[in-house]
Structure formats: C-alpha cells, structure tokens
Amino acid sequence: MSNGRFNMKILLQFPEGLKREALAYAKKYEKEGHEVFIASASCFGACDLALEEAKAVGAKKIVHFGHSIFIRKKLPIEVEYVECESDFDIEVLKRSLTALSGFKNIAIATTIQYSHKIPEIKKFFEQNGKRVFIGKGSLAFYPGQVLGCDATAVTQFRKEVDTVIFIGDGLFHPLAMDVDTPAFVIYPRNGDTKQINKEIDTLRKKRKGALLAAVDANSFGILVSTKFGQSHLKIARWAKKQIQKRGKYAAILIANEFEPFSLNNFMSFDCYVNTACPRMSDDLEKFGKPMLGVDLFGELLKILDELSNKTNNGSKH
Ligand code: SF4
Question: What is the pLDDT of residues 195-213, one digit of tens each?
C-alpha cells in the first residue's frame, strides 16, 4: 500500500559478511518505491534484530539478511528473513573421504547458507558407504543447521555416531559441536578436511579455567543484553538471588553489546555471569575476568555449595 510518496519505510540489516551487498539491495528496494534505511551496527545473528533502529526511523518492516528465523516470540514489527544461499560443487567432498575412511556412522551439520545442500551431502556420503545422521537443532531452523549457540543437530547423536562433520567456513560454528567423538570440518571451497578436537579441547580447558577462577569471586556482574533474541532478565534475576543467597554481591548490568573496555572500567567485579550470547564467554582473554555462561554458572553454584557443606561439616567436629 502506498504511504504518501513512498511505498513503505524499510530497514535493511546485514551480518558483517554481507554488508558489501547492502547498497545493491538498497537500490533494489528504492526502485520498488520504498524509503530505505540500513542498520549499520554489527549484527551477529538472527537473535540480533535492529528493533531500536527500526523504531527510531519509523520503519514498518525489517528485512534481515543472511539468517533464518531464530526468535519464536512475537515481534513488535514485521521481519522478513532473506537467507542468502551459497553453492559448492558436491564433488569437492571426495577429498574428505581419506580422512573419514575409518568412520561408518556420521552426523553432518552446516550453516544456514549451505542448509539447502544437506540432502545432496547426505546422498554423497551414503553413496560412499556411510550411514548419515541428520538432526534438527533446538534453536536452529533447518535440519542439519547449526548455530554458534546450538549444535544439537549433531550432538543429539552422541551415542549413535563415530564422528561429527561440519561442512562450512570458519571455526565459530563447528566449535559449538562439543563432542568427545572425532569432529571434522570440511571446507566447501576445496574439500580441505581438518580435525578440530584439539580446538574443542582448548575451549573446554578455557571454560574450566574460568570456572575454577570464579570459585574465589566475591562480586559478580550479571550481563543482560537488550538484543531481543538474547535478552534473559528473568535468568539474570535468578542468578543474582543465587549469588546473594551464598553471601556474595551481584549486580545486573544492561547493554546492547558488552565491550570489554567499558565493562572493565567498573573495576568492581571479580567475575561475570553471561546471560546474553553464550559464545561471548569464549572471548575470556578480552574481558580479563572469568566469564561464565548460564550452564557453567550452575556448576559454580554446585561447587560453592559443596565447599560450604565441607566447611560446615568440618566445623562440627
Ligand atoms: S545467541 Fe550468539 S551464537 Fe546464538 S545466534 Fe545469536 S549471536 Fe549467534
């Protein structure tokens, strides 16, 4: 419907890797008669919709590129997801067969841009003698799709498979596959195949180190993001109560995005509890303080309670 001079006010939002396409899309929507705005801030996932920007310019719709639906709750504005598929020659997977020769039962995963290739990938491995497992993640939208915060598409097959395989680029997504079985990445550009269990182990050690360091913490900053798909105030309030119950101090800190510099200027917190994007906790070095995701925070509470029980029992003798 026409709205005066323009058809509709639209806000376009791109993840970093697709920002170079922004101008071409802006021109396309302008040609159709829309008034177009482009969200400029970093966008890390479909959890991170530019709702504030849309409100500020009075946009009627966000066109969000490069991700699939993530937020299942009702949104205050219409959001159209444009998924942006990438293609690759399925024959490149032949190069992975030597590395995978000892494995029969395999779980496969990929990111949104290659999700449409899953049936073809499955067929390829089946024709090469593998039994292929493809699952639907708990947060991810498509079968076989993994997110940085959801690799249940493969981890649900822990007992059935002897290896998990991620087909895609980079290490951010495959490192969500926290498994004990051998784990591989196949790069779709050329079929290069890399085992990543060392990297998974490094991440586990880092998380364990943060947990141990947090045992002695007395004051906790609980991080709550205002990003619509990452905002967990209820969990933060619960965490605060748990900390207070154990005689320690906790404050809830709110931001759209947490920057190490501005966070560390508080100089008051021995540890952060992260209720926002769980993968932020992997950037421990940047924050200079232990940072626990919600799962690890649960483990911390158990450790603190065990220590307190030991002390109480000791003092009874
Ligand atoms: S919460 Fe983090 S890992 Fe999950 S989709 Fe958002 S940015 Fe990605």
Answer: 999 999 999 999 999 999 9
